[in-house]
Write a structure and sequence with these properties.
Blueprint: H1 7-64, E1 77-78, H2 79-86, E2 89-93, E3 107-108, E4 111-112, E5 128-132, E6 141-150, E7 153-163, H3 164-215, H4 229-279, H5 285-316, E8 325-328, H6 329-339, H7 341-346, E9 350-355, E10 360-363, H8 365-382, E11 388-396, E12 399-406, H9 413-416, H10 434-444, E13 448-454, E14 458-466
Parallel strand pairs: 1-3, 2-4, 9-11
Antiparallel strand pairs: 2-7, 5-6, 6-7, 8-10, 11-12, 12-14, 13-14
Helix pairs in contact: 1-3, 3-4, 4-5, 5-10, 6-8, 8-10
Length: about 475
């Protein structure tokens, strides 16, 4: 039952069923059309034969009218000769003798049908086609009657007849040939459908095995590389999905390691200073204040880390809300700039602020500041001591542009898209959440985050917001 229910068996069976159904319907239509055609052709041929013989008979009547001497009788034609020539039976219906005084009729041996046979319309002299059973016969015949006329008067009729079975034999012969052709066609179609189904099913089965492997956590799967049509597209997309899942798993593993490190470092510092304060090891008031400041700074660091994780979770689940207020962008840029002034001075970084406009926009000021802060934080991470970082503000074409430019190592083209994914860090340290959150926040604020970079010459991030 499992084999019959498999796709590799059901698919060719469905193909064959469709081919058989189409063949049966086509055969029935062809047989019906051929039967009608054969019937019409037989009646038309009989009508032509009956008309020709009736014309010949009528001419004989005219030539022999009033002729009582055999020496003047018209030339005779035997019925058997006509039947051999036409392949059909020839009958006469009407008066028994049309040639007074002539002992031999013009068509010798012509059989006469009784008056109970087909009725001749003596007034109109119309030709007839019909089905009848001749005397001393046991099967039905198709017949065509054509009148014999003399000066417009119907004086008799000629009937050309052929057995109904002769027409049926033609149909039977066609059916036999169609049956043979159908059997051969089914064999060929069956082999072709089996081959095509294997071509289609094999990649599907390989994809099914790959899905099972991915579900079990094995992302190094092999999928069909040369599958036809849509299956090839599906295989390529599945291969990309497996690679992406493997990458995501690696990033999550790195993220857990990074978060563990990021959490352990401040917690270790906090625990050490708190233990020293509790045990009374630090007695100098200045040292006690310094320890408390260290605890406060490390606590804020933990708070930022947890906040980043929560922000990313909210953005991913679309549960993030944006408030609206009037935001003085120049004041906001000054605030963001001041946060890193001391670090720039300590590391001898050429830290500049450039503003060509002082726009006021309606947006979420805290979130805009968070995006700019994340961009600056990333710039300070990648810029070496003695480097250069600039923070700019401009307005053009109804949009506000906040740019952060550094002269760090730059970003390779193949890494630019990945850089905005969660858990991906440009420097290999940190959680890799800053740029991912900045990208999502810029979209939530109705803007965008653009990147221009050249390897070895630094990078330029630009936040574009509607004015």
């Amino acid at each position: 039952m499992a084999v019959l229910g498999s796709l590799r068996v059901r698919l060719p069976l469905i193909f064959l069923a469709g081919i058989i159904l189409a063949g049966v319907v086509t055969t029935l239509i062809a047989v019906r059309l051929f039967r009608d055609f054969a019937h019409d052709q037989a009646l038309a041929q009989l009508s032509q034969e009956a008309h020709g013989i009736a014309v010949l008979y009528a001419a004989s009547v005219k030539e022999s009218y009033g002729n009582t001497h055999d020496r003047q009788a018209p030339a005779k034609t035997t019925a058997s000769a006509l039947e051999d020539a036409t392949g059909d039976r020839i009958y006469y219906i009407g008066p028994k003798r049309l040639f007074p005084g002539i002992t031999k009729q013009p068509i010798e041996g012509l059989q006469t049908l009784p008056s109970t046979g087909p009725v001749v319309n003596w007034i109109s002299g119309a030709a007839l086609t019909f089905t009848f059973t001749p005397p001393h016969k046991h099967r039905r015949y198709y017949g065509a009657l054509d009148p014999i006329t003399d000066n417009g008067v119907t004086i008799g009729g000629i009937i050309a007849a052929t057995p109904v079975t002769s027409v049926s034999d033609r149909v039977d012969s066609l059916v036999k040939r169609l049956a043979i052709a159908g059997i051969l066609g089914l064999l060929i179609a069956g082999a072709l459908s089996w081959y095509l189904s294997r071509r289609i099913v094999r990649p599907v089965l390989q994809l099914s095995d790959a899905v099972d492997a991915v579900a079990a956590g094995d992302y190094a799967v092999k999928v069909p590389a040369k599958a036809p049509g849509e299956l090839g597209h599906l295989s390529a997309r599945f291969r990309e999905m497996a690679a992406r899942l493997a990458e995501v798993e690696a990033m999550e593993r790195n993220f857990l390691m990074s978060v563990s490190h990021e959490l352990r470092t401040p917690l270790t510092a906090i625990r050490g200073h708190v233990a020293a304060l509790l045990e009374g090891v630090v007695e100098d008031p200045e040292l006690r204040e310094l320890s408390l400041e260290t605890v406060q700074a490390e606590t804020q660091r933990l708070e930022r880390l947890v906040g980043d994780i929560l922000d990313l979770a909210k953005l991913d689940t679309h549960r993030f809300t944006v408030t609206t207020e009037e935001v003085d962008m120049a004041q906001l840029i000054d605030q963001a700039y001041d946060r890193y002034r001391e670090e720039a001075h300590r590391r001898s970084i050429d830290y500049r602020q450039e503003m060509s406009a002082r726009p006021v926009i309606v947006s979420d000021g805290d979130r805009v500041l968070q995006v700019v802060g994340n961009l600056l934080s990333n710039a300070f991470k990648v810029t070496p001591d003695g480097g250069r970082i600039s923070l700019g503000l401009a307005q053009q074409n109804g949009t506000v542009h906040v740019s952060v430019e550094d002269n760090g190592p730059g970003i390779a083209p193949e890494l630019r898209e990945r850089l905005f994914r969660p858990f991906v860090s440009q420097t290999g340290g940190g959680t890799g959440l800053g740029l991912a959150i900045a990208k999502e926040l810029s979209s939530a604020l109705g803007g965008s985050l653009e990147l221009e970079s050249e390897v070895g010459k630094g990078a330029r991030f630009e936040l574009v917001l509607p004015a």
